[in-house]
Amino acid sequence: xxxxxxxxxxxxxxxxxxxxxxxxxxxxxxxxxxxxxxxxxxxxxxxxxxxxxxxxxxxxxxxxxxxxxxxxxxxxxxxxxxxxxxxxxxxxxxxxxxxxxxxxxxxxxxxxxxxxxxxxxxxxxxxxxxxxxxxxxxxxxxxxxxxxxxxxxxxxxxxxxxxxxxxxxxxxxxxxxxxxxxxxxxxxxxxxxxxxxxxxxxxxxxxxxxxxxxxxxxxxxxxxxxxxxxxxxxxxxxxxxx
Length: 242
Prior knowledge:
This protein is α+β, with helices and mostly antiparallel strands. It has six helices and seven strands, in the order ααβαββαββααββ. A five-stranded mixed β-sheet has the order 2-4-5-7-6. Strands 1-3 form a two-stranded antiparallel sheet.
């Protein structure tokens, strides 16, 4: 399966996500709005909040789908980046957006890895997902290369942990009608990291840790083990669940 074919698949998924969520969520909005119009007791406030929450969720899913489509169409090539600089800038912006959350960094002075500008989008999704899930403290760490020449970026939080379905989506990028909405952002994370030639893993013990493994950049600016190939991008059709 070529990269072009994989991008065509992504466009198809984006369309299905939008059709499914817009239809179902708007049905919820319409039904509850009718209930509000007819209500005259204490249920009014509850219905109104449900309408507002559903509308916010709908907007969030639409924005994520639009961002993913933009990332797809821009199609940036993986290249050496200082991932420490990317983490520092992203976390600084997230601190301003979420002043109530405690965001920490554990970083070396600098670290080159093969990635794209979409690494920032990946980090924003993971950190905001951790905050939304109830994590009071989120740590983003960059770990120097291991013996296999992989640089890892870790996002750790002290929240209740990812539900099994969301962990599966994050690691495998499975996408089905029941996964649409709530897991779409994590599905997008897997896709974008795979396009960089990287891998995503998740572990939940005392804390939830999402690990992004990227190829180390060589001294000459090339990947340590050669160019990012189709195989490195994970184009095995048996690995996809459509």
